[in-house]
Amino acid sequence: MSLWVIRTFFLLLCTAAGYAVSQYRPELIDGGRYGVAIGFGLGGLLIALDQMLKGFSLRAFSAATFGLLLGTLVAWLIERTQLFIYADEKTRWLIRLGLFLGFGYLGMILALRSNKEDFSLLIPYIRFRSQSKPENLIILDTSVIIDGRVTELIERRFVEGIIVIPNFVLQELQYIADSQESSRRARGRRGLDMLNRIRQCPRVEVRVHETEIPGETSVDARLLKLAQSLDAKLITNDFNLGKVAELQGIPYLNLNDLATALKPALLPGDIIQLKVTREGKDKGQGIGYLQDGTMVVINGGQSLVGQQAAVHVQSLHQTGAGTMVFGEVKRDEAA
């Protein structure tokens, strides 16, 4: 909204400037109505140009300027070779115009398509380094915001930096929160609540990134493009998105991988305390769950359903869904 306030003020300023020119320099603009119309039209044209360049960042503008200068230099070198010395003056003027326009355009396009490594090859002995400490930018995707665990990590200082929330992620959360399906609507509202908690955390800065990503339609593709352009780290719960980010050289963190790495390491012979929640498939067995959701099959636990029990771990079995723990009730508890 603040951008439109600035644009409206700029449009009014241009209109007033056009009227002022018509009053003080009537030889340039004859009549106040024409001055207002010209000022308003010029301001509207610039605002329309601003809208067309919505996805054009300052970094892209710098690259395009460098490409234009490089193309102009190449065109000037070709023109100075005297290849067209036998052409008449009018023809040489047209050739110069074609050279500068053509090489300027090619230079801008090639610069916009290039990355840092290409510029390093062009200027191999020069490295442009920031003298200040680089910003630690972190981009959150929709799944990890709705999950909510990243909010706890931020509040407990395990994640520090500048949190970047893309505008298209906000739009996706709002779309989910407005869904007709109650479960999706609850997930969307939870995501918005988590964002408010992150924004109110005094230990981190939250920025809403409003620049659109041209040429991409899916949210995942735009997230990857944005992380690449900002040199930011991506935090997600999406396994496939993380793998694509890894292939593209984008640093990322999958919270599910972090949760798996932080699971307590159980070994045969350990004693654990847990509640027996239900009966098992076999006679005399009970089933319980650790805090991370790992299922524990308890021999002799059928009679203790609904009670706390001390379980002696006997073995661990790895399955496609995770780890299963097999144990038995300690004899003094069974007695």
Description:
It is a single chain. By secondary structure, the protein is of the alpha/beta class. The protein folds into 3 domains: 2-122, no CATH class; 137-261, Rossmann fold; 271-334, OB fold (Dihydrolipoamide Acetyltransferase, E2P) (Beta Barrel), CATH 2.40.50. It is 52% helix and 18% strand. The chain is built from 13 helices and 10 strands. Strand 7 and strand 8 (295-299) form a beta hairpin. 20% of the residues are buried. The model is unreliable at 124-131 (pLDDT under 50).
By CATH's scheme, which homologous superfamily of the largest domain applies?
5'-nuclease
Query: What is the CATH topology classification name of the largest domain?
Result: Rossmann fold
Q: Number of helical segments?
A: 13
Main pleated-sheet profile = 5 strands, parallel
Helix content: 40-55%
| Strand portion | 15-25%
Secondary-structure element string: HHHHHEHHEHHEHEHEHEEEEEH
Strand order of the largest sheet: 3-2-1-4-5
* CATH secondary-structure class of the largest domain: Alpha Beta
Uncertain residue ranges: 124-131
The CATH architecture of the largest domain is 3-Layer(aba) Sandwich
Tell me the number of strands. Answer: 10
- The average pLDDT is 82
Work out the count of structural domains.
Answer: 3
Rg value: 32 Å
**Head-to-tail CA distance between termini:** 70 Å
Bulk shape = elongated
- What structural category do the secondary elements indicate? alpha/beta
